[in-house]
Amino acid sequence: SMLAARERLSRERIGELMKAGRRVPDAFFDIRTLPNTSVRGAVVVSKKVAHTSVGRHKMKRRVYSALRAIRPQIEASDILIIVKKTAKPHTVAEYKGALMLRLRVKNTSKV
After folding, report:
1. Which one of 29, 37, 70, 71 is at 20 to 30 Å from 107 when CA atoms are compared?
2. Residue 1: pLDDT above 70?
3. Can you tell me the distance from the alpha carbon of 78 to that of 7, in angstroms, rounded to the nearest whole number?
4. Are 41 and 6 in contact (CB under 8 A)?
């Protein structure tokens, strides 16, 4: 499934991320982030990346699944994940690994 409604981004916010988001380079994804009080995300797969709707949804589901899994460990921010051609079609574990490397992880050092 997708993210819960409160964990998703509005179209308007996606536009803001496209324009002003901090770009995080990665082989699989073009990631844009902006600060926020909680973690919210959106995954975009264009027709250039996967020609069929089934193919796009499969990639989307896998990326969302990876994002959901690591969400508790990520610093609060809005995250737009634009899937590149090179990302197809990898496993959830591979997507998770890529996102963990690129997204700001909470400082979990014990005080």
Report:
1. 29
2. no
3. 9
4. no
42-to-34, 79, 84, 100 alpha-carbon distances in Å: 12, 7, 14, 16
Q: 80 - beta bridge partners?
A: 32, 42
Q: Check if the beta carbon of residue 64 is closer than 8 Å to that of residue 43.
A: yes
- Tell me the C-alpha distance between 84 and 69, whole Å: 21
Element (H, E) at 44: strand 40-44
Distance of CA 71 to CAs 3, 47, 54, 106, Å?
Answer: 10, 27, 25, 10
Choice between 95 and 104, residue whose per-residue pLDDT is larger: 95
Q: Is 108 helix (H, G, I), strand (E, B) or coil?
A: coil
First and final C-alpha spacing in the chain: 36
Confidence of residue 90 (pLDDT cuts 50, 70, 90): confident
pLDDT score for 49: 93
Report the pLDDT value the prediction gives residue 71, as an integer from 0 to 100.
Answer: 93
